[in-house]
Amino acid sequence: MSLNTFGHLFRVTTWGESHGPALGATVDGCPPGVAVDEAMLQHWLDRRKPGQNKYTTQRQEPDQVRILSGAFGGLTTGTPIQLMIENTDQRSKDYGEIAQAFRPGHADITYHQKYGLRDYRGGGRSSARETAARVAAGGVARAALAALVPGLSITGYMVQIGPHRIDRARFDATQIDQNPFWVPDAQAATEWATYLDGVRKSGNSVGAVIEVVASGVPAGLGAPVYGKLDTDLAAAMMSINAVKGVEIGDGMAAAELTGVDNADEIRMGNDGKPLFLSNHAGGILGGISTGQDVVVRFAVKPTSSILTPRRTITVEGKETDLITKGRHDPCVGIRAVPVGEAMMACVLLDHLLLDRGQTGGIRGQIG
Amino acid sequence: MSLNTFGHLFRVTTWGESHGPALGATVDGCPPGVAVDEAMLQHWLDRRKPGQNKYTTQRQEPDQVRILSGAFGGLTTGTPIQLMIENTDQRSKDYGEIAQAFRPGHADITYHQKYGLRDYRGGGRSSARETAARVAAGGVARAALAALVPGLSITGYMVQIGPHRIDRARFDATQIDQNPFWVPDAQAATEWATYLDGVRKSGNSVGAVIEVVASGVPAGLGAPVYGKLDTDLAAAMMSINAVKGVEIGDGMAAAELTGVDNADEIRMGNDGKPLFLSNHAGGILGGISTGQDVVVRFAVKPTSSILTPRRTITVEGKETDLITKGRHDPCVGIRAVPVGEAMMACVLLDHLLLDRGQTGGIRGQIG
Amino acid sequence: MSLNTFGHLFRVTTWGESHGPALGATVDGCPPGVAVDEAMLQHWLDRRKPGQNKYTTQRQEPDQVRILSGAFGGLTTGTPIQLMIENTDQRSKDYGEIAQAFRPGHADITYHQKYGLRDYRGGGRSSARETAARVAAGGVARAALAALVPGLSITGYMVQIGPHRIDRARFDATQIDQNPFWVPDAQAATEWATYLDGVRKSGNSVGAVIEVVASGVPAGLGAPVYGKLDTDLAAAMMSINAVKGVEIGDGMAAAELTGVDNADEIRMGNDGKPLFLSNHAGGILGGISTGQDVVVRFAVKPTSSILTPRRTITVEGKETDLITKGRHDPCVGIRAVPVGEAMMACVLLDHLLLDRGQTGGIRGQIG
Amino acid sequence: MSLNTFGHLFRVTTWGESHGPALGATVDGCPPGVAVDEAMLQHWLDRRKPGQNKYTTQRQEPDQVRILSGAFGGLTTGTPIQLMIENTDQRSKDYGEIAQAFRPGHADITYHQKYGLRDYRGGGRSSARETAARVAAGGVARAALAALVPGLSITGYMVQIGPHRIDRARFDATQIDQNPFWVPDAQAATEWATYLDGVRKSGNSVGAVIEVVASGVPAGLGAPVYGKLDTDLAAAMMSINAVKGVEIGDGMAAAELTGVDNADEIRMGNDGKPLFLSNHAGGILGGISTGQDVVVRFAVKPTSSILTPRRTITVEGKETDLITKGRHDPCVGIRAVPVGEAMMACVLLDHLLLDRGQTGGIRGQIG
Fold first, then answer.
1. Residue C14 maps to which CATH number?
2. Which of C226, C264, C302 is nearest residue D239 as measured by Cβ atoms?
3. C336-359 and D108-115 helices cross at what angle (nearest 10)?
């Protein structure tokens, strides 16, 4: 792994800036013979696409992905897959003031401090636009997973926006695609709409928590210490823009449990496989998947580009107040849902290949 | 990075099992000319050493570290440093029952499923003993940091045990070394002692939250996407045994903030450097350090080896109830404090070298 | 490093097939603030461009490189640089027969065996067109080296074609750019032209040896064992299509030397630095540069696509004779000269950054 | 890969100095369930062991390897395997003069220049003793290969010493173990003994060429560009101390061939598999194995520690003449034979795992 690359065997390198000619992902190590095409990847990108409703940035981008290499006759060839998305709506003029002043809570100042220069147009490399490339790469990972592990599914949704959490008793997965928040609760969707309207109109923004669940994950994925499945999931989610916390299973709340409560007791299932009676562990023990649902949550901080003036400094060291005009998401966490799903897909495929490489995918028998 | 290795340039590979002849860390990429000796590393190991009070396992191990390579005349040579700790107190007989049955909430079952066999003596590779090797490697990282960044300090402490959180108003750093919990609050130390006694006597265990703060970190460490400083910190902390959640700065609570509140506003300090008026970001923006304190928290789940019977299955697929005898920590989170510090040291040094490699360590001027 | 990526800190991932829409290189880890533009990179690509004379393939490609990311205002930003070259002259019809039969001596059969399918158009990923992407990336590396190590120069040239070797007594560096063979000897250029004409007209091809010399390389680049400068140079050159041998300094001939002859004796130079009296080592001792010229040679086998029929089999397992029509180089080694230079530039920059990362670039004093 | 680590999935990190307490190899990523024990590894170490005859250094070392981790009940567990060899014969007093003066042709000066200090005792990290760790790791790789690819064999032998090459017409594999040179020719063994006696008595040393052949390698190992099988073999062999050239198949001589001669023509074998009529390619096309013998050669330069005085300088910059006393090999190439075999084993296993990871090891059918 490296600066802009993640993955051990299924390796994704994203590139590109918000307002450059294009951005994309270079995907290496994909199994050969996997059916992929641009329409399939476009499906996932369309889910993430901004400008779809008033809760995401009004920047209008078709975000059309092109496959420039690594596929032939509709199948992956095992060689690098280049996925390119051209930037078509680059209103650079919106960003004049940002060239001089650093948005508080934004990467503007650290990019300047580290590199001595920065592409200030729309946040450059630090823009959330980078996540479009992840979603495209995640589409390839999903296609490979579909071929290798039939029945595996990945579902992301929001469980919290600002102070409002979902009521788990009303959890309804069929609602997720029915509202702009990817929230599994119709009532919450209505309430959150009102809440977020207020946030937006007041020139403010707010954070969110996203949960991503993978079902049908084989037992045995992951490895000790730095190859732990949860290590890589934590890294994958924390690498998404604006993420400040990552939880596996019970997450931070695990601190409050006793060992008696935390033990996910085991019985033998009717299928002759281990049957866990609970899933505090989020499907991972000792860094290795148990075969239960893999459950990850991550918190996204509020967008730092807001219409309310905040105190900051300029490149010249002058103190100033800054209002960030432009088209910004009042809750960037909404668009993080498909991104979290994409990262889950990439990590699971990577670990599937890693495990197949080291162990041949043969499992220790029980019984 | 790989299965048992972490780091980009300062690379640590830990090896060894709980009840094998020895365990250790192979440290590659350390700068040359750094003063290290066994006594210096022993200091950090002694902080982590079990058997020091009734709140940690009564296993008595001197945990003496030897430097087998990579140092000459008291200085690192720039070649791999091998740190070995011999296992001297290997009461394998304690672990007979574990050979057959899988402890619920433990890696026993996943190691069996993945590898088809496991070293069941004391948890083998999945034992918390592995973290001794991290602490030794962290000692080397601290020595290098001391040489390269005078004034950088790393401090870990517990902020929660079970349901009991510290009162930040009573925070007193001088207390951290004065109690067995590394808690910065004398009153909490007393209360927690009573609480944990009860947990232990009832044959139970409990989780904890640890906070690690690094002060004096230069601005500019970290890089986009997968080389983010917080990405690597999340991975480093999540890779520690029993950790289920990681937070940077405000962490999961960032979801509740608005953009107005979350903005760490900036003024010019008297030293001509940026002065941040708050630190919701935990010292990292866009994956790159701001120069503020780097603040990480992680949750440790309760020890799964407990004296209360839990339902489980055996390797033969028979259902059974299991009590885990032996010498186990009622709160493994206590010993995670020096481990978290060690991981912070390793990650910071690694990013310091990475940054020096790519940018030469030259910073963009402000003003 | 990985399947299609090379480099430790300065990492280049090439992608693309001979007859796909485009090919290119994703360059990560470049120092920020380096002046690069498309014209500068085009200069190096034009040197490699086919169709310039009758000794290289008559495929006409402008091979125009575009910088899609990682530069702003003419300077590198420290983020990934995407270099794309569109394929404009894709005469796929030439390659019909190749879809069925495997060219002897070509990667056709192994790609089929490994991946189960292959992009047979022009060799797909195994085509020498991939090296255009390396030359573009090498252009970035040269720009960074020029900024970091003024005075460093890299020069490649042919020293052998088929059985004809250069006469070192006639070595004239000024001739290198004056003939289609990059040969430092005007007389050889004339003789080789006649020789290669004959090879080409007979429907045959021939191999070559290229030498690449880097002058002005600082002492101290490289590291023990797998980070050796010569290890990475050997890998870099062997990774070029059709290369079958790599030599450092005296290379294979070192076997014939005695220790007395091989010792590059050392005196003190007038500049107060070590002065080596010979350079059998090719500028590298123990994997680390000495400050002398770094000298690498590599052998390129003859093009396997020839007009003379050769026995082979088809995908269906039928035996057949194959003539490879199309526009092929009679000596692909000619175009390997700028490719070898590019790889040298990438390896040197990578090791410069690695060394700066680990040691800070501070050198042990002598005297 | 990194400074002292090689391999993608089967990763070997060697550590240790010639005269430190111990040296060894940390082996990560080994498949689980492979039968290994110390006696098995000792077998390979004994082949490399110095002091066995007058042609290798008279340093007497038992070179006994211990397995400190990663095996349980005689089987690998899939966790890191630590292999340690204690240094028992550390006559440091022999090396007094070397502390001050740099041996010409040796890494002494470059280690000093790079790191500012060096462990001068016996060459420290740059000593050929490091290769003992590789041989131990190679023993693990051989055991895994034996389990995964029955019938695969690896054989190394010398084909040249100084100016004396073997006569391929007299090649007799049964002779390899019958003489101190690992030469497949009884007559050459006798002649070389006389020749090397003379070299040794004159206080000189000489170089050699070693060939390593792997038979029974499955088709399909390797990958494009930097994951080429020959790329990694070139890197592996070039990383061995004193190696200056690496060849695959016809190697440097490929430059002299025409395309007609170089084409390894293909017919269908009686087993329904492709049958190659020659093997100029050395078993690798496009970086991927063909199923033929994989053939690698490498040249080892003469030992730089010789009894004949050579001109050099001291750390203080004083000019001097140096004679290197001590127990040195007149031809270090002899001991490189088992080392080359070990590296071949490591590279093949690594690529077997890599291929299994990406493709599942399923091969494209022919016919």
1. 3.60.150.10
2. C226
3. 60
